[in-house]
Amino acid sequence: MAAPCCHSMADFVPAAIGYNTYYIHHRHFFFTAMLFVYGRILSQRLVNTVNSDKVLYRLVSNLIKYHTVVCYSLYITGFIWFILTLKKKMYKYQFGQYAWTHMILIVVFGQSSFTVPSIFEGIFWSLIHNNHLKGWLSEVHIWFLLPATLIVINDIAAYFFGFFFGRTPLIKLSPKKTWEGFIGASVTTIISAFMLANIMGRSQWLTCPRKDLSTGWLDCDPGLLFKPESYSLLGWTPHR
Questions:
Q1: Is the distance from CB of 64 to CB of 39 less than 8 angstroms?
Q2: How many CB atoms are located within 10 Å of the residue 84 CB?
Q3: What is the pTM (predicted TM-score) of this model?
Q4: Its Gene Ontology biological processes (predicted)?
Q5: Most distant CA pair in the chain: distance in Å?
Q6: Can you spell out the DSSP letters for 8-37?
Q7: How far apart are the C-alpha atoms of 196 and 103, rounded to whole Å?
Q8: DSSP assignment letter at 238
Q9: Euclidean distance between CA atoms 235 and 143, whole angstroms
């Protein structure tokens, strides 16, 4: 008798719990986390987008006003639902799944809570003002597109230099990694960082913050950070 070639998710969920309950319960927490995180990020931009329509403006404004209460109620509902679905001799499994669900949500939406605001504040950069902090903490530049691009360049360069010039192993943990690939990728990434920063910094679409959910062109004063400035190397050389 031939064994089945593959399994569905339902095969890994105990019958005492039920796959439908398991599936809907996890999706409930996912939807609640998504509504809480993205609702806080997009609320003001959503209002700015629909402010021309009075009906939509009132509807969206009321939803945003009670956003926290709605999210809290949804989470409490999910928690009570979880308690009511507990089965004897399945407590360890169910609480384990409950914990894993929350850990995954923290990892996924924790990153999104930083990445998505950075995109809307400027794909290339964003500037956060905090009146309670002083000094360098009052202006924190969060880069998004530049480091993401540099990571891709670093991986490609490491593979290229390692494939064509790699001779010396880097670490035993990864035998295919070589010193030639590491050094070549490092130099390529540093050079690319200077070039891309100069190119991306000239685009207002990458540097200007977006106040609504439109996709139109942006126009703003990018600030001193993105204005080209010349430096003399003479000031860096020691004097005799």
A1: yes
A2: 7
A3: 0.59
A4: CDP-diacylglycerol biosynthetic process
A5: 88
A6: -GGGGS-TTT-HHHHHHHHHHHHHHHHHHH
A7: 36
A8: P
A9: 29
Dist CA 26 CA 31 (whole Å): 9
Say how far residue 84 (Cα) sits from the centre of its chain. Answer: 34
What does residue 233 show for φ and ψ, rounded to 5 degrees? -75, -10
CB 40 within 8 Å of CB 117: no
**Two structure tokens written together for 17:** 């719990």
Question: What confidence tens digit (pLDDT) does each residue in 138-184 have?
Answer: 333 345 788 889 999 999 999 999 999 998 998 888 888 899 999 99
Give kind and range of the element (H or E) at residue 170. strand 169-171
Q: Per-residue pLDDT tens for 3-19?
A: 555 545 455 555 555 66
Question: What is the rounded distance in angstroms from the CA atom of residue 177 to the CA atom of residue 159?
Answer: 9
Residues in the chain: 240
Q: Let me know if 194 is exposed, middle or buried by CB neighbors in 10 A (0-12, 13-18, 19+).
A: exposed
- C-alpha span between 44 and 216 (Å, rounded): 17
